[in-house]
């Protein structure tokens, strides 16, 4: 059986509700919270990625949103680049735990979510992007809902070398 992990990316206060608030934050956090509860109940590892550039360490902006905060013992990988794997030990942690499939949720869609999905597939992981549990802000060109819809279309059936990604809604995530 393929071993999965839930990867929550940049679900930090400063990203979600900072100077450029993200789209539908309360609903997104509710879905991520439900996913974390389901993963924990099924014994699936829950890992977090936290961007150190969001605010000073320990600040309210830097903190992971309380609704989806890690429990004691859950791993937090800190990063300084858009790519969750770049300059971090995320890949080593996943390989050490023999994870083969990532279920990804969080923010921001066109930056850190996009980078994580693409990079994960080139590193040998299959990916389920939770289509209704990632978010971003409006841009000068597109509203957030359009950015999210585009990413969901792009990554549903995305093949990269031998690995792939799919998009499913939170209620349909199967950790088995």
Structure overview:
Helix 4 (109-122) packs parallel to helix 5 (144-155). A seven-stranded mixed beta sheet has the order 3-2-1-4-5-7-6. The chain is 31% helix and 23% strand. It is an alpha/beta fold and 176 residues long. It has helices at 13-17, 25-41, 90-96, 109-122, 144-155, and strands spanning 4-9, 46-51, 76-79, 101-107, 126-135, 159-160, 163-168. The model has no long low-confidence stretch (mean pLDDT 97). It has five helices and seven strands, in the order E-H-H-E-E-H-E-H-E-H-E-E.
Distance between the termini: 8 Å
The shape is globular
The order of strands across the largest sheet is 3-2-1-4-5-7-6
Helical fraction equals: 25-40%
Determine the number of helices (DSSP H or I, runs of at least 4 residues): 5
Structural class: alpha/beta
Mean of pLDDT: 97
Number of strands: 7
From N to C, what is the helix and strand string? EHHEEHEHEHEE
Question: Tell me about the biggest sheet?
Answer: 7 strands, mixed
Approximately how much beta-strand content do the residues carry?
15-25%
- The low-confidence runs, each spanning 5 or more residues with pLDDT under 50, are none
